Amino acid sequence: MVRAYAPWKALTGAPPLPMQDDYAARCAAGQAFVLIADRALAGLIVLEDFPDHLWIDNVAVDPARAGKGLGRTLMGFAEAEARRRFLPELRLLTNALMARNIALYARLGFTETARRVEKGRARVYMARALSG
Questions:
Q1: Which of 25, 61, 62, 78 has the greatest number of C-beta atoms within 10 Å?
Q2: Are 43 and 6 in contact (CB under 8 A)?
Q3: How far is 87 from 13, CA to CA, in rounded Å?
């Protein structure tokens, strides 16, 4: 999935933090989920449980499959997982330079909750409450 981050590296001038994640540990912890299409890895999502929300730590789609709704499929999976786990809210963050992601999350019902500079990066925090 490294290809999924290449456009963002060019935009932000630094490798996105998910490129440095330990995916073996994420898999062992039951936090990483993959989307397979045509018998190939098409996308992934990393989810973390918190007492009052499900944290979407990472969403990535193979750029060769962009625009086919796979990101929305992964986000729908996150919503279903939050409901299955009886968690009332989804939360995530993205880089402030990633306007396309921010717009997508807003279309999916997320609202901005904060903007902060952390680890040298301008971050936008977003949340979406899940109704009954």
A1: 61
A2: no
A3: 35
Other Cβ atoms less than 10 A from the Cβ of 81: the count is: 17
Terminal Cα-to-Cα distance of the chain (whole angstroms): 34
CA distance to 35, 41, 57, 59, per residue, from 38 (Å):
10, 8, 25, 19
Q: Rounded to whole angstroms, how far apart are CA atoms 109 and 50?
A: 20
Tokens of 73: 């499929």
Who has greater pLDDT, 38 or 50? 50
Helices marked H in the chain: 2-12, 23-28, 70-84, 99-107
Q: Give the burial string for 1-23 (b: 16+ CB within 10 Å, else e).
A: beebbeebeeebeeebebbeeee
Could you tell me which of 79, 85, 84, 66 has the C-alpha nearest to residue 109? 79
Answer whether 76's CB lies under 8 Å from 47's CB.
no
